[in-house]
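Lecture 7 notes: from sequence to structure.
We start with the chain below.
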Amino acid sequence: MFEITFLMLIVAVPLQFYLSKKYNKWLGLILPIIYFTISIFAVLSAFQFVLFPPLPSVHEVYENGVLISSESIEQTKVADNIIPFMLLTFLYYNLPTIILCVIYAVYRKKRIKSIDIEKMNIQDL
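Predicted structure tokens for the same chain:
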């Protein structure tokens, strides 16, 4: 899972640099919005474990084709651990969003500064 996220980030970072340099400010927000949406879907898919918990497994011991013992193995309650799991999932999937937003903010700040300098140069003429 980490490898896929890392590969997606390798592709997204140069594209984010390119989109953030554009005049239209909304182009630079496309990738962060996509990654944020992916993180929401990841959290919702983690939430399915609360709605549909895994069934307890049964351990059966056979000897010569005859059932000797059968015991139900209780699984840990997923609901007890779901909030930290969902929070960590949300943070993990939003790391690329944070990186892309930082890139966007830096390049937008540079772009706004260059636009202000151009306006000043035009006014000086």
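Points to note: The chain has one domain: 2-124. Residues 78-124 form the longest helix (47 residues).
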